Amino acid sequence: MAEARTRRRGGGGAARRAERTAVSFECAKFITRNIPNLEILNEEAMEIIEYNAETVLEEVGVNFVENPAALARWKEAGADVDGERVRIPRGLARELCKTAPSSFTQHARNPERNVEIGGKNMVLAPVYGPPFVRDADGGRRYATIEDFRNFVRLGYMSKWLHHSGGTVCEPTDVPVNKRHLDMLHAHMTLSDKPFMGSVTAPERAQDTVDMCGILFGKDFVQQNTVTTSLININSPMQFDDVMMGALEVFAANNQAAIISPFIVGGAMAPVSVAGTLTQVLAEVLAGVAYSQLIRKGAPVIAGTFVSSIDMNSGAPTFGTPEAANVTYGAGQLFRRLGLPYRSAGSFNGSKLPDAQAAYETANSLNTGLLSGVNFMLHSAGWLEGGLVASFEKFVMDADQLGVLHGIAKGVEVDVNGQAMDAIREVGPGGHYLGCDHTQKNFKSAFWRSELLDYKPYETWEEEGARDTQALASEKVKKMLSDYQEPALDPGIAEGLKDYIAEKKASMPDAFT
Predict the structure, then answer these.
(1) Quick count: other Cβ atoms within 10 Å of Cβ 19?
(2) What is the pLDDT of residues 435-482, one digit of tens each?
(3) 3-state secondary structure (DSSP) of residue 217
(4) Nearest 5°: phi and psi at 265?
(5) pLDDT per residue over 359-377, tens digit each?
(6) Phi then psi for 302, rounded to 5 degrees?
(7) 297: Cβ–Cβ under 8 A, 6 or more apart, which residues?
(8) What number of other Cβ atoms are within 10 A of residue 343's Cβ?
């Protein structure tokens, strides 16, 4: 017993020493809006779109591909099943959606990082899915697992990001059938923020649940949501067996899924805003309803990814007014369903973190805030239409996410906010720099970028006349050099390593 007590005291001293030498950084709580949502659809428009969406489900139907179990579930629920086509009677999908929660907590291994998804809240998560990465030193290249780990480290240290995300980039140097294990391990060990699970095969979704059981405890996982997943619908109106298989695993285990059509307007949906919204709503109704056939009360997020198309080149375009209007309208429709909403992000089609990237990103981020998005995937790091995760763009976006926090606060009109004492003190012709109100408030009155340059021209020139990409590149290196891994119980860390080693040994490498 004495030896055990001595060990505990030694460990505590080591922990306190580590805490004293740790690099200090802030992590903001998820956003709670104090501003209204921008609503562009009137009541008549919403009723028309809702009616048309249910007409699509009833008359046109949706395909559930290579999934006999899904077809059987739909038939038992009262749908008309003809081959792989499922036609859903008017009102059935909407009724099934009623058991999905309007908000839920996603737990992080650090309870201070838990996020509330739904209501007036907005959770910001980084880019998802690019096979390429870019930085100022190495240019554009295929992503590696070390790139992935570095993005997780940056996300952990980024003040305004609330979530570690999922496939921040696709590490192509690890076998396809095993890389999800390394990606999950990075999220679980290199960060203590919430994270997303694997959806590229049902068995990989199950690995996510099993590894979460090691990290959080099996009983805790069954009773609480600890991971979120991205379930894309193959628009138009097709649900494949891979995505639905992953959804089935996550829903059955009480884990969250983003049910999200992937829309390139004019190619995968009509060119009109109302037509696109009709299809989006029909697909989301069918997907969310199916999650509730798996398990009533399974947490879901109604999502949509929307871009328009360049009719000359066929390339997707971003930051456009049409995509914005779909994003605003979808928020209204999903709120009427009582579901959390996912959309928007740092979308742009630029090859570099340049002016095009900044314009398109700003349009997309602000649209997300004003449309009432609850979970914003792709909020940092997106480049080249989602093909590239950029290190410089990541820290540029992560810095600008602070603007969203500031706008969402709204306008304070308490006694301090009214500032009447300051106006009286300064009077006509004076200035406010030295007044009591300014002295009390100047440290917190204005949001301040930790990246952008506001120095005088002479100072800027003396320091190398650096543009924003150069400043961001320097910041990436500084953040990675300062990074310190958050503590994790040694038994849990060992359990995760053993699970991964056993799973990898059980199958040969596959790169396709």
Answers:
(1) 10
(2) 999 999 999 999 999 999 999 999 999 999 999 999 999 999 999 999
(3) coil
(4) -55, 135
(5) 999 999 999 999 999 999 9
(6) -80, 125
(7) 99, 100, 101, 254
(8) 31
